[in-house]
Automatic annotation (TrEMBL):
Annotated InterPro entries: De-COase2_N, PLP-binding_barrel
Gene3D superfamilies in the cross-refs: Alanine racemase
TM region(s), chain numbering: none
GO terms for MF: diaminopimelate decarboxylase activity
Domain annotation Orn/DAP/Arg decarboxylase 2 N-terminal: ranges: 10-233
Enzyme Commission number: 4.1.1.20
Keywords: Lyase
Protein name listed in UniProt: Diaminopimelate decarboxylase
Lyase as UniProt keyword: yes
Organism from which the protein derives: Mycolicibacterium fluoranthenivorans
Keyword S-adenosyl-L-methionine assigned: no
């Protein structure tokens, strides 16, 4: 019930790309350049999670044409564009949500930096979920968030998991849709020190937080996908 996704930038390393292909590891694509690297490395589109926010409109259309495993959207505009680009099939969609505790000012700053924000328990978030559910070409499969240092990121895995399970429970109650995937980005899945010591601690923290949140909200445990982020490049984890 847990999966780790590596960044497409890591695939420039021949040994990493070979290991990813052999193991069928998921790959995060956050730009047009990332997409080109992943395709050149021979990664199956079904293993790609493509973040629309980092792509231009033409790149989103091109990415949709590859039938990737999942597309991550963070605005109504991206949802509408993706729905218009998908043809003859259904595309799995993950909605990127921001920390609901972020002050309004920080959200404005994020938008000024060109980043879209859909805060948990907000009208914009409800509209985004409704737009995905309202399209016959899009299939909502989960939520994604970032845990890190940006103004609207979550400060920890427990905080992120608690809010995301709460939002998933709300979506189930209001829309009758059970989301099955919980994505945690930000690159904190890569320890800064001793792997043997930090990885078990991280796994235990996430596992306990997920058990507590799901038990409290009476929500079925989703698949957790950890994004390793750029910090994994140059490391010897593989």
């Amino acid at each position: 019930m847990t999966e780790v996704a590596v960044p497409a930038s890591a695939l420039r390393n021949h040994l990493v790309s070979k290991w990813v292909r052999k193991r069928g590891v998921a790959v995060d694509v956050c730009s047009g350049r990332d997409l080109a690297v992943a395709i050149a490395a021979g990664i199956s589109p079904r293993r790609l999670t493509i973040h629309a926010q980092g792509l231009r409109d033409a790149e989103i259309r091109a990415a949709a044409g590859l039938s990737p495993g999942c597309m991550v959207v963070s605005s109504l505009e991206e949802i509408e564009l993706l729905a218009s680009a998908v043809e003859g099939r259904t595309q799995g969609v993950i909605v990127h949500m921001a920390n609901s505790n972020a002050a309004d000012l920080t959200v404005v700053r994020a938008q000024q930096d060109g980043r879209h924000t859909l805060r948990c328990d907000s009208e914009q978030m409800n509209a985004a979920i409704g737009a995905v559910l309202g399209s016959t070409r899009l299939d909502p499969v989960g939520l994604h968030c970032e845990v890190g240092g940006q103004v609207d990121d979550f400060i920890s895995y427990p905080a992120a998991i608690g809010q995301m399970i709460t939002e998933m429970t709300y979506i189930r109650r209001v829309h009758g849709e059970v989301l099955t995937r919980l994505g945690l980005g930000g690159g904190r899945a890569v320890p800064s020190g001793d792997w043997r010591e930090e990885l078990p601690e991280l796994a235990e923290e996430i596992d306990e937080s997920l058990d507590d949140a799901c038990a409290t909200m009476r929500f079925p445990r989703p698949l957790v996908v950890l994004s390793a982020g750029g910090a994994i490049v140059g490391r010897t984890a593989a």
